[in-house]
Specification:
Layout: H1 3-8, E1 16-21, H2 27-36, E2 40-45, H3 50-56, E3 60-63, H4 80-84, E4 89-92, H5 94-102, E5 106-122, E6 135-148, E7 153-158, E8 166-169, E9 174-177, H6 189-200, H7 209-224, E10 228-232, H8 237-250, E11 254-260, H9 268-279, E12 284-288, H10 290-297, H11 303-324, E13 328-332, H12 337-341, H13 350-359, E14 370-372, H14 380-389, H15 394-397, H16 417-436, E15 445-459, E16 462-475, E17 483-484, H17 489-502, E18 506-511
Parallel strand pairs: 1-2, 1-3, 3-4, 4-9, 10-11, 10-13, 11-12, 13-14, 16-18
Antiparallel strand pairs: 5-6, 5-7, 7-8, 8-9, 15-16, 16-17
This protein binds xanthosine-5'-monophosphate (XMP).
Length: about 525
């Protein structure tokens, strides 16, 4: 947010904690923890213009970690303005090391690189550790460490391999930690950060999600002016919240394109259109493209090829729709922070392919557009909270994730309209029953898979030779690892009976008891 946007919220002056970024993978987490405590926080690069820091008028500055070594002379340093402002400073990891070095201490590249848990013992009373035990389990991730404490500083805490794990200035509100209080692995990390922002900086906890929404609306208005903005709406959480936010900011100047590729869950296309077009009065164009997708997928069995085809077709359809809309200068995307940090490419997620496609200017020549990504620094749960404030239905915001290629990767082998219809029915029954049994929110993701294997069954007096449906339900926090959900047998029996009885083309139902790794969550 620049100074102008801040002024527009100025009827309410908001206390700000500045996070100066030295490139740590955890920098956004620091800002996020502060927001969790209802204090506004903004991240700026360590070498930002002095005037920007002054304009922000921060109550305190946190110096983040970073990948460099202060033992090298060309590496980042804390700008002089941070000292001149005479406000509280908290250095974390690299932030501590450069602080120590700049204030006359000494940093060495230690022989023991320390990654993971460590126990600190607190040696000196410190406001930063007030109300905490004298030993804490913390998260370390560093090669260098402070060897000689600067003059006027006192040692606060040590670990076995980092004798100077925390220090504080004797007369000024300057603190430094070798470990990372922002990661959840650090016991009481939140309390340490809150001690800094409330007890040291005296910041007020008066920042709310509403403020973030107003701020983002101001920023969008300022950026796009009177121009039209195009958004690919998938109905997923991120693009839905982006749509709702942009709608509040620019109303009908937002044009959404929703591609119905025929590979969505049962009723999904109707629901998305109802929510956004009818209930929220958004400008949404629906592209009925099932035929194009199925045509391109005809005869294709290889999972990777199917993914690529679905991704490419999506882009073609989206681009063709976009060209029809005249005078669009901006492309909005629901990119969220994990999308920014996740390494792209290796996981071949189509959603990301689309994003990178547009990011690298892959849109047709005649459409040169600037990007609008209002959720780019937020985490998923923050996006959901914003969605609630914007009035989106909880069912939409708390829905299980759905892969970009949709049912295309849940029908093993060749995708056809008939198989899609069978899978949609089976999946619908499974999900409805999970909701009814109050199990939907207890699993992280659940779905049905169509197996192109024929098996014999008997229904009534008749022999049935038909395909198999697999049910998959997993519990996971981050979707990187997952455990198969131990759903009750009675429940599974009931779902299986319903599927075989109600869907003629299914002879058998199986339950997937593979965890990730080695299995992935999706079957293809
Ligand atoms: P896997 O199968 O890799 O899935 O264990 C992890 C999570 O990612 C989702 N997923 C995808 N999402 N495009 C997406 O947008 C894809 O191609 C894709 N493949 C998997 C999957 O549903 C699960 O939540």
């Amino acid at each position: 947010m620049d100074a102008k946007a801040k002024i527009s919220l100025a009827n309410k002056t908001i206390d700000t904690i500045l996070v100066l970024d030295f490139g740590s993978q955890y920098t956004q987490l620091i800002a996020r923890r502060i927001r969790e405590s209802d204090v506004y926080s903004e991240i700026l690069p360590w070498d930002i213009d002095e005037a920007k820091i002054r304009a922000l008028n921060p109550k305190g500055i946190i110096l983040s970690g970073g990948p460099e070594s202060v033992t090298q002379s060309h590496t980042p340093r804390i700008p002089q303005i941070a000292f001149d402002l005479n406000i509280p400073l908290l250095g974390i990891c690299y932030g501590m090391q450069t602080l120590a070095e700049q204030m006359g201490g000494q940093v060495i590249s230690s022989e023991h690189k320390e990654f993971g848990h460590a126990e600190i013992s607190i040696k000196t009373d410190s406001i930063l550790f007030s109300d905490l035990d004298t030993t804490l389990n913390v998260w370390m991730s560093h090669g260098d460490q402070v060897q000689d404490i600067p003059d006027d500083f006192t040692l606060v805490a040590s670990t076995a391999s980092a004798p100077i794990a925390a220090m504080q200035h004797n007369s000024k509100p300057i603190f430094a930690l070798q470990f990372h209080p922002e990661v959840t692995h650090t016991e009481s990390g939140k309390v340490i950060l809150e001690n800094f922002i409330f007890k040291v900086c005296n910041a007020r906890n008066d920042w709310k999600m509403d403020d973030l929404i107003s701020q983002r609306i101001e920023e969008i208005k300022e950026k796009v002016g009177d121009n039209k903005v195009l958004l690919g709406l998938s109905g997923g959480v991120d693009s839905s919240v982006t749509a709702a936010l942009l709608h509040q900011a620019i109303g009908k100047k937002l044009v959404c394109v929703f591609v119905d590729n025929g590979l969505l869950r049962k009723g999904e296309a109707v629901e998305v259109m109802q929510t956004f077009k009818e209930n929220m009065n958004l400008n949404v164009i629906k592209s009925d493209s099932e035929e194009a997708f199925l045509r391109h997928l005809k005869g294709v069995e290889d999972p990777e090829q199917k993914r690529k085809i679905i991704g490419r077709t999506f882009i073609d359809v989206f681009d063709a729709e976009a060209i029809k809309i005249k005078d669009v200068h901006f492309l909005a995307q629901g990119t969220i922070y994990p999308d920014v940090i996740e390494s792209s490419g290796s996981e071949s997620k189509e959603a990301r392919v689309i994003k990178s496609h547009h990011n690298v200017g892959g849109l047709p020549e005649e459409m040169k557009m600037d990007l609008v990504e209002p959720l780019r620094d937020l985490f998923k749960d923050e996006v959901r909270k914003m969605g609630v404030e914007l009035g989106l239905a909880p069912e939409m915001l708390y829905r299980h994730p759905f892969p970009g290629p949709g049912l295309g990767v849940r029908i093993l082998g060749e995708v056809t309209k008939e198989k899609t219809a069978v899978l949609q029915e089976a999946d619908y029954i499974f999900i409805q029953e999970l909701i009814k049994a109050d199990l939907y929110d207890k699993v992280s993701q659940a779905f049905a898979v169509y197996l192109p294997v024929k098996s014999v069954g008997v229904v009534g007096d008749e022999r049935r030779y038909a395909e198999v449906i697999a049910l998959r339900a997993v519990e996971t926090v981050d979707f990187m690892t997952a455990r198969w959900a131990h759903l009750p047998y009675d429940f599974l029996e009931h779902v299986s009976n319903r599927i075989v009885n109600e869907i003629e083309d299914v002879s058998r139902v199986v339950y997937d008891i593979s965890s990730k790794p080695p299995a992935t969550i999706e079957w293809e």
